[in-house]
Write a structure and sequence with these properties.
about 15% strand, about 280 residues, 9 helices, seven-stranded parallel β-sheet, single chain, alpha/beta
Length: about 280
Amino acid sequence: MEERGTRLEGKVAIVTGAGATGSGEFVGIGQAISLLFTRQGAKVLLVDRDQKNAETTLAQIKEEGGEASVFVGDVTNIDSCQEMVEAAASTYGKLNVLVNNVGISGPGSVTDVEEDFWDTVMDVNLKSVMLTSKFAIPEMIKDGGGSIVNLSSIVGLRAGGGKPSHAYAASKGGILGLSNSMAVHYGRDNIRVNCIAPGHVYSPMVARHTSPELLDLRRRAGPLGFDGTAWDVAWAIVFLSSDEARWISGVTLPVDAGLLAATPLAMYPYLKDPE
């Protein structure tokens, strides 16, 4: 077990997409966020549509001596989002942090993507941020302010490679714009809103669906030259959620091994096939 800290001591957080997708230390982003938050002293409402996965994360937290509870809900449904915030406030007395981590993807360019799939991606990735924030912000204002961290992607900032996923890219870009506007319009209420843009994170889902050749290329594409994990993303979110970041709002923080800083030519020597 990681050493416990106090960076989020006394804070109450909601983490969406908190269910387990891995085991041990090899976990998904929502699971890692939830574990680090409780290790740093926060009480966490674990939100997921899959009760079994959420209960697995809860069991890990309880085994480590942390405090959390499960809310099974649908972040694309307005009633469910209202009930989620009410559950956090009634269980723990307040709400300080909201982490919007839910997201889905899938292949398809604008010329071949199905309209229903496009709408589903927009609902899950983008509309969910609006719906959860709609109810979280008033609760945070009652408690003197708070922090919202939204999970975007480097694909929201720059086109990705491989098969196009235009719905995913559009939704993640939309999160950036929405987050900036929220940061400005709720700043005087002491609400901070920031984005994390993960890069090529090596996660259980990536491990299951990515070829060894592509995994190697992803690794070499980043200037640091090694895999990032869900823990790297989660630590960045701990920082943005903590009082250490009290003067940071409207920021998009790439967690990507320096990938966005590099041009293809800069990385060419590292992308050539090994001889």
